[in-house]
Design goal:
three-stranded antiparallel β-sheet; 9 helices
Length: 342
């Protein structure tokens, strides 16, 4: 399509190309004319174009499934892979195997590799199964500081009593998100209403439906102990074929607000809080409002200190503590003037 020249933006009509799409051809009108419709939108409006105005979508930009290689695993060490990486820039919500190839090609081959030497025969032989992994039991170390909560899970019945007696029902857990490989600590909050609906035997099996809390965006430059921790809400959509959830941008809602479930989703899952492989600390409450703390949704410093000790014992990246961990300290006006004077 044509582009107007704009002197202020330095945009030249002869050197600019703007494309619309992708489209699919719905009808051949004859005389090199076609009727097209927006891709993945069967109810969208149709347009008429000449054949000279249309060109095939380059196959080099088709999205493809990632291969399970060492580089891909390194990329997924802390971050899960994106479901549809070209969904926003190109408006393609599904992969090319679903869009452009209704019948996927055959990936098997009748050819069988034959070993040419004894070394190759050993290489092609099935490997012996690895020895079963036996996790080491964690024994908490008593430290001189005051231990508010023992870093070891209790029996499910005792844990249920403490959860019911707690006001905010907060826990520190270690968890590995789906699609990642690195275990990290997380601050979660139990949703008793959802737990009762999904697992009526939570008092005996120790499984709770927990929602994850994230640092407030305005406190991202502060250390963890000075930050506010709010519910982690996201805009979302679903893949039309696999029904897999595609997370969008994070949206801030106050802890007392529950938005529409048709547009927003909270990061939550069922967690077993009565096992050593998950439990770190809890239950506990947010720091009370006092003369030194005027903000809700903050965790007391002693809990962060205990969490740091446990993370060091378990080789987990510990939380940041103290004012020395502030990422971008603000420069005051007096400091700026003193620097200029010097």
């Amino acid at each position: 399509m044509q582009v107007q020249s704009i002197l202020a933006k330095g945009q030249v009509q002869k050197l600019s190309y703007q494309a619309r799409g992708p489209f699919r051809i719905t009808q051949v009108l004859g005389n090199q004319s076609f009727e097209v419709q927006r891709y993945d939108n069967p109810n969208g409006a149709t347009r008429k174009y000449k054949g000279a105005d249309l060109y095939l979508l380059p196959p080099s930009i088709f999205p493809s499934e990632p291969l399970d290689t060492m580089d891909q695993r390194y990329l997924n060490y802390e971050n899960a892979p994106i479901v549809s990486p070209l969904r926003k820039p190109l408006g393609i919500k599904l992969y090319n195997e679903l869009h452009f190839h209704p019948q996927p090609p055959n990936t098997t081959s009748p050819h069988i590799d034959q070993p040419s030497s004894r070394l190759d025969e050993i290489a092609f032989a099935p490997h012996a199964p690895a020895a079963p992994f036996v996790p080491l039991e964690y024994h908490p170390v008593v430290t001189p500081i005051e231990i508010l909560v023992q870093p070891s899970p209790e029996s499910p019945q005792t844990l249920a009593e403490h959860v019911l007696a707690s006001r905010d029902r907060l826990f520190f857990i270690r968890y590995t998100p789906a699609g990642t490989m690195r275990q990290r600590w997380y601050l979660v909050q139990i949703d008793l209403q959802a737990t009762e609906e999904l697992n009526s035997a939570w008092r005996t099996n120790g499984k709770y439906f927990c929602v994850f809390l994230a640092c407030h965006p305005d406190d991202k430059n502060k250390s963890d102990e000075f930050a506010r921790w709010w519910p982690d809400w996201y805009q979302y959509s679903r893949c039309k074929t696999t029904q897999e959830i595609i997370y969008g941008d994070r949206v801030l809602f106050r802890p007392t607000v529950t938005p529409s479930s048709d547009k927003y989703i909270q990061w939550a899952t069922e967690v077993s809080l009565s096992v050593h492989s998950t439990f770190l600390q809890g239950p506990f409450n947010f720091e009370a409002i006092n003369a030194l703390n005027r903000t809700r949704n903050k965790v007391e410093k002693d809990y962060w200190a205990n969490l740091r000790l446990v993370c060091n014992e378990l080789a987990i990246l510990p939380p940041t503590l103290g004012s020395s961990h502030i990422k971008n300290p603000k420069i005051t006006l007096a400091a700026t003037k003193r620097k200029r004077k010097t």
